[in-house]
Amino acid sequence: MTEQPTDERTRIREAMDRLLAGQATASNGSLTIAALAVEADVHRMALMKRHADLKNEFYERVRTEAQQVPEAERRLRESVVKLKETVSNQRREIKELRELVTRLTLAAAVLTDQQSQSAPRSQVPDNVVAFRPSEQ
């Protein structure tokens, strides 16, 4: 029972060496966990869960030996940039909408005031009482 994980770990380390040397035999040669799993003939989830330390080691070796950012990290960084841009755009839009609400509220108040001042008293129904500011 302890033989299989040891054998898997050995295959994973050998696969790491082949991928980093650019000598892939079973995978497409990309420096990803999926390619490492194919190259080592190990299920990808086994690599992610049982051998997480080897996955981290692989990513570290990709950074140092190949001087590349791992594919997953690169995609995450791109997503972060896009999300920051989206948040910035939304903040700008919210600010513009708040300013528009203020301007529309003021315009509505001005129009209401103008309408009440220009409406002749004869057109106002008898049952309507106009609000007037109290005089002090």
From TrEMBL:
Coiled coil: 73-114
Keywords annotated in UniProt: Coiled coil
Region (Disordered) location: 114-136
Compositionally biased tracts (Polar residues): 114-125
Identification of the protein by name: Uncharacterized protein
Species this protein is from: Streptomyces xiangluensis
